[in-house]
Amino acid sequence: MFEEAQYFAPVATRDDGTIEVELAASHPGFADPVYRARRNAIAALAVGHVPGTPIPTAEYTPQEHEVWALVSRELAIKHRVYATAEYLDAAERLGLPKDRIPQLQEVSELLQPLTGFRYLPAAGLVPLRDFYGVLADGFFHSTQYIRHHSTPLYTPEPDVIHEVIGHANALASDRYSRLYRLAGGAARRVESDAALEFVSKVFWFTLEFGVMADQGELRAYGAGILSSYGEIEEFRGMDIRPLDIARMGTTHYDITKYQDVLFRAESLEHLEDVVGEFWETCDDESIARLAADAR
């Protein structure tokens, strides 16, 4: 229901140097002063982080750990039914804690020996080119806050559950993590904003909201589906289309609702051959041709 590079609550630095996360009035935590203070403090950790140093520790409350434990437990049940075998194997390989929120530094230390990926803390909006570009170096920008406790199975924005349960499990796979790196290389290679948007849309319809034929049925590998308690139950009923780079790169989507158009890979090999090859070789000219063909 969101894209990391676009759908964060704005973060502002006040005249006195304090950090404030500007939540919308519709946000579940808008009227909760304790939650808002927690969001501000956690955002300040990311703002103050110096690249190359350990990620600051977020001191989560018992209530926040309970939200993680509940969602982690419920999603694990659904993953056995709806997630691809590659994702399930990678999740077992990574071994995230089930009863508490892991620190991003901890996630990095689990991931790095497996696929070389590490996390970077994000206070809020990360520019599109920066968000995708660092994937080429094995870095992933991530929030540290968790959704409001009143709606543990819903969040209007990407939180640590999405960033870690959705993405870190995929990043523990050698094959999925290679695709993340190729997407980052493509984002760095292209020059125009239009080409970058095309690359990001292909990412959206694959590593965020991708589905594939797996174990004799349609299963999900996209982090947006696999971290959404509601959407994971609905994706098989959406408009499922064949994997098509030109269509993925030019199809409009609404980040505020369940994705009603999804693109199906016939296997992980098919995904690697089509999407991996695109990201590995694309440039502004080839993308312009693909976009023209889709008109």
Write the layout of secondary structure elements.
Blueprint: E1 11-13, E2 19-21, H1 33-47, H2 62-82, H3 85-94, H4 104-115, E3 118-121, H5 128-133, E4 139-142, H6 160-171, H7 174-189, H8 193-208, E5 211-214, E6 217-220, H9 223-226, H10 231-234, E7 239-242, H11 245-248, E8 261-265, H12 268-281, H13 284-293
Parallel strand pairs: 3-4, 5-8, 7-8
Antiparallel strand pairs: 1-2, 5-6
Helix pairs in contact: 3-6, 7-8, 7-12
Family: Belongs to the biopterin-dependent aromatic amino acid hydroxylase family.
Pfam families: Biopterin_H (PF00351)
Cofactor: Fe(2+)
Structure in a nutshell:
The chain is α/β, with parallel strands linked by helices.
Strand content: 5-15%
Summed over residues and divided by their number, the pLDDT gives a mean of 94
Q: End-to-end span in angstroms?
A: 26 Å
- How would a textbook summarize the main sheet? 4 strands, mixed
User: What is the SS-derived class?
Assistant: alpha/beta
Number of helices: 13
Shape: globular
DSSP strand count: 8
Runs with pLDDT <50, length 5+?
A: 1-6
Cofactor: Fe(2+)
Organism: Streptosporangium carneum
InterPro entries: ArAA_hydroxylase (IPR001273), ArAA_hydroxylase_sf (IPR036951), Aro-AA_hydroxylase_C_sf (IPR036329), Aromatic-AA_hydroxylase_C (IPR019774)
Family: Belongs to the biopterin-dependent aromatic amino acid hydroxylase family.
